[in-house]
Design goal:
Blueprint: E1 5-8, H1 14-23, H2 25-30, H3 39-59, E2 65-71, E3 77-87, H4 92-96, E4 108-116, H5 125-139, E5 144-147, H6 162-167, E6 171-173, E7 182-186
Parallel strand pairs: 4-5
Antiparallel strand pairs: 1-2, 2-3, 3-4, 5-7, 6-7
């Protein structure tokens, strides 16, 4: 498999994100709005409302994430992976979370989700996506990249694991033992 391209989602690549979303119902169900919207607005939006919210964010030029593309022979490049990354302040649910400790900092960008097409799993794509997402955030002015991996490595795996982030140079920030881990690295 050749994964030779990682691109931020912008209005120019919005069609690729829509194709990716339409192909994977699990991704489409949330459309990476779980951490952007607080609980009540998330539930009230419903699946199609969340799809529309993501499309609106992209159309408005807001940072939402990075797509991974796989060469598909004569048909060009197909999106096979996603990493949601954006300024921390764009994630309303992260900012009010009772389980994610708020670590001070300026120009902090958060990684909150990965989704990989089944055919592209178990090949190191998440690590490549994370590297591309961190590079994108740094170019956009981030000073710090922050992530909130699942504490036990099982639930919420879509947010990444401690091992993934450690391998990419993230370090755990000391915090309350009952909270979710916060891991950071300089952009």
């Amino acid at each position: 498999m050749s994964r030779d391209r990682f691109l931020p989602v912008t209005p120019a690549t919005a069609g690729d994100l829509e194709r990716f979303s339409a192909a994977y119902g699990t991704f489409r169900w949330c459309s990476c709005q779980r951490w952007r919207l607080r609980s009540t607005p998330f539930r009230e939006a419903g699946k199609e409302g969340r799809v529309a919210a993501l499309a609106g964010q992209v159309a408005a030029g807001e940072p939402v994430g990075v797509l991974a593309y796989e060469s598909d022979g004569d048909e060009g490049h197909e999106p096979v992976g996603w990493c949601a990354i954006a300024p921390r302040e764009s994630y309303a649910a992260v900012l009010v979370s009772r389980v994610i400790p708020q670590v001070p900092g300026e120009r902090v960008w958060s990684v909150v989700c990965f989704f990989t097409a089944p055919r592209a799993r178990r090949r190191g794509l998440r690590r490549e996506l994370l590297d591309a997402a961190c590079g994108y955030a740094a170019q956009a002015g981030a000073a710090v990249i922050e992530a909130y991996p699942s504490p036990d490595g099982k639930a919420y795996r879509y947010m990444g694991t401690r091992e993934l982030y450690r391998a990419a140079g993230f370090e755990e920030v000391p915090g309350p033992p009952e909270g979710r881990p916060v891991m950071r690295r300089p952009a």
